[in-house]
Specification:
This protein is an all-alpha fold. The chain has one domain: Four Helix Bundle (Hemerythrin (Met), subunit A) (Up-down Bundle), CATH 1.20.120. Helix content is 63%, strand content 0%. It contains five helices and no strands. Helix 2 runs parallel beside helix 5. The mean pLDDT is 86.
């Protein structure tokens, strides 16, 4: 049990680090705000919190960034996760597509407001 809780805690620490990074970037950069980076960290935060939840409930998951798939697994324990599927789909795009030019997504402030 102790090992599981250590892993859950590690996922949560990493998730909170991503959240702090996203919030700090949004709050402190006034010119040329890196909206793509903020959205990336928002996605990473959600992904890691989901993985913490799944680990806690001893549900195995692949090494993936697809929030819809992770939510599908989490919804087997708690149906409330289904309510965020639409947002999860949008956030998933920021995990990979957003990071690789030239196809990268170009989010703006309204996208950030939606994901944070």
């Amino acid at each position: 049990m102790k090992e599981k809780m250590e892993i859950v805690s590690a996922w949560i620490r990493k998730a909170e680090s991503d959240l702090i990074t996203a919030q700090h970037s949004l709050k402190n950069i006034r010119r040329n705000t890196p909206y793509d980076t903020i959205c990336f960290h928002a996605q990473q935060c959600a992904e890691k919190y989901l993985k913490a939840f799944l680990t806690f409930h001893e549900i195995e998951f692949e090494k993936i960034h697809d929030l819809k798939k992770l939510i599908s697994l989490a919804s087997k324990v708690d149906k409330v996760f289904i309510e965020v599927l639409e947002l999860a789909d949008k956030l998933t795009d920021y995990a990979v597509d957003n990071r690789h030019p030239p196809e990268g997504i170009r989010p703006d402030r309204s996208d950030v407001v939606r994901v944070l």
